Every structure is written in structure tokens, then in C-alpha cells.
Amino acid sequence: xxxxxxxxxxxxxxxxxxxxxxxxxxxxxxxxxxxxxxxxxxxxxxxxxxxxxxxxxxxxxxxxxxxxxxxxxxxxxxxxxxxxxxxxxxxxxxxxxxxxxxxxxxxxxxxxxxxxxxxxxxxxxxxxxxxxxxxxxxxxx
Length: 141
What we know:
There is one protein chain. By secondary structure, this protein is of the alpha+beta class. It is built from two helices and six strands; from the N terminus they run βββαβαββ. It has a six-stranded mixed β-sheet, covered by helices on one side. Strand 4, helix 2 (about 100-110) and strand 5 (about 115-120) form a beta-alpha-beta unit. The N and C termini lie far apart (about 35 Å).
């Protein structure tokens, strides 16, 4: 006797997309959205350390810069009804790979387990003379 188990998954229409925008994160500085929700997946554009309240860069230290970026990411996630626990992938771009430890120390305070996949790369230049930029992909299941 052979037993066959069939799993049926309900899926949302992934052809639909919603633009996520919040005043709690910096306005885009180009032709892009803060976030795009496609089905249950949120793509958050790269965030730099712009304080959304005054539009100025936060760059006193690399740790403060990373903290502002994480606050900006959190604002976009919250607008989409998500949190850091929904992040499945992050990309970190550093102007100086020597800043990795300081950025990682701040970054790690936002995750408690089931860490997302991640890449960290050194780049030659970032917008507005930023030292770090972080983008994320989050999924709400």
C-alpha cells in the first residue's frame, strides 16, 4: 500500500505590489520607494543615516550612524506591519570594512535569534558621503 500526502498552499497574488512610505523614515533621495510589498515579501530600499525629523545625516560616530539606519529600517518595517523578526536577508555596504565590528555590534542588538542571511561588502562610495548603507528583505508568513 502506498500513501500519498498532498499539501495545498494558499498563495497571495504576488503580481500585486504596494508601495510602503512613512514619514518616520527619510524620504527617498531619488526615483525609488522606501519599501515595496509584493505579496507577503517586503523589499526595503537601502537606508543611510538620515534623520527623518530634520533631513540631516547622523555621522558623529559609525555606531550612531548604524543606529539611525536601523531606526529607519524599523520605521519602514512597522509601516508594513512587520518587525525585525520578519527579516530574512540583509545587505550591508561599508565605505571602510574596518568599521565592520562597530556596525555589527549595533546591528546585532536588533536580532535575538533565527538570524537573517547577510552579506557585508566594502564599497568605494555611498550617497551623501554615508559610511554605511543597509537594505533588507522581510517576509510575513
